[in-house]
Amino acid sequence: MLSKILYDLVGYNKMNDSSKIEGYDFIRAISTLMVVCFHFSRSYSQYNISGFCNYINVFPNGDWGSVAVSMFFMLSGATLWCKYSSGIVVSEFYKKRWISIYPMFYLAWISSNIMKVCQTGNVLWGGAIYKIILTVLGLDGYLLYLGNNYYILGEWFLGAIIILYTVFPLIRLAFYKKIKIVTIVILTLYIANICFNVFIINDFRNIITCLLSFWIGMLYEKYRLEIGKEIVVISATVCIIIILIPINISNIYLTNVLSLSVFIVLMKVADIAMKGSWFAYCINSISKYSYAIYLVHHIIISTIMKRFSNIKFSVINGFGLLLALFIIIYFVAYLLYRINKINIRVVSNFICGGKNKK
Fold first, then answer.
1. How far apart are CA 293 and CA 153, in angstroms?
2. If you write DSSP's letter for every residue of 143-200 in order, what string do you get?
3. What is the pLDDT of residues 31-60, one digit of tens each?
4. Where are the alpha helices (DSSP H) in 85-123?
5. How far is CA 176 from CA 75, 179, 260, in A?
6. How far apart are CA 317 and CA 312, in angstroms?
């Protein structure tokens, strides 16, 4: 009984499903940890906190947050192609995506908005009321560069992934029918955008760059079983070079190359790391609650770290605070996940009950 409670608490679910690729759970968990660590480190400069080395923020050719996000896009492409390579029912696909994204997002946003209104004393703190439609669509963070809106929590890449999910049936068709031609087209658009800087939005956040990572993920899944030790060794070498040696090339290119290399290496590491039972439980747990963690981590980090403004931390104290923060983030995410599951079950039962009465 006690072990069942503990397994439920850490989010452990049986991994005997042969269709489940543990390496993808491993990468999802690692990417989640990287994003949390990145924003924790960034909060030091935001709140003028000193004494902590920037181990988990930047490297000579970029930052770890961008690497994690790029891997997340690749992971999304890989898992969707893994699931829908043989066929797709579009209506069911959209239904599942909607349920997986929006109910939890709305629940978290409403809770955060109540606190924001209490803090500001203004219901329209985000500007004109029509801007709330961006939040309803989940695009408020992604389109924040266009001006202030009602964005509170989550990350900008939520909006990008929603756009990619929306057009996935078309992406899947293009991948299935014209994989080589479309790969060349996406690469061409990606390079052209970086060279000519056509759009206002940051090049890394541009939907073309996001699509490239998503597409690479699909390619990875398609050829995953053909990746041998030589490619893993090359990828590890590329990681070392980009992480340690400054290179006079656009950070966007280097981030995408590094992300793919790290992705390949982590998939290999997962073959060994996921054999440890309790380690696997923890990884599966973080993976399971990753979306909830993405939604709440930023606001929790900001709320707590601003209390330490203008303070100097030692490295040990800094990592201790990071661990404490992650424990808080994890349990808030756990509660959000559980409440969301209850809400979905209640609504589902209500709808089904209504239909049965009819």
1. 11
2. TGGGS--S--SS-HHHHHHHHHHHTHHHHHHHHHH-HHHHHHHHHHHHHHHHHH--SS
3. 999 999 999 999 988 898 887 766 678 899
4. 90-120
5. 18, 6, 22
6. 10
Percent of the chain with pLDDT over 70: 92
Instruction: Please state, in angstroms and rounded to a whole number, the distance separating the CA atoms of residues 130 and 326.
Output: 35
Dist. CA 63–CA 293, nearest whole Å: 20
DSSP string, 286-320: HHHTHHHHHHHHHHHHHHHHGGGTT-B--HHHHHH
Residue whose token pair is 């969301």: 340
Domain locations in the chain? 27-56+274-351, 74-226
The mean pLDDT of 345-349, rounded to a whole number, is 85
pTM: 0.90
The residues pairing with 312 across neighbouring beta strands, listed in sequence order, are: 50
Sole residue written with tokens 């490295």:
315
Cα of first residue to Cα of last residue in the chain, in angstroms, is 41
Give the position of tokens 């891997």: 71
| 208-246 per-position pLDDT tens digit | 999 999 999 999 999 999 999 999 999 999 999 999 999
Q: Is the pLDDT of residue 63 over 80?
A: yes
pLDDT digits (tens, 9 = 90+) for 273-309: 888 778 889 999 999 999 999 999 999 999 999 999 9
- Whole-angstrom CA distances from 19 to 24, 82, 281, 290, 293 are 11, 9, 18, 20, 25
Assess contact for 47 and 308: CB atoms under 8 A: yes
Query: Which helix H or strand E contains 277, and what residues bound it?
Result: helix 277-288
**pLDDT > 90 in the chain, percent:** 78
Beta pairing partners, 58: 63
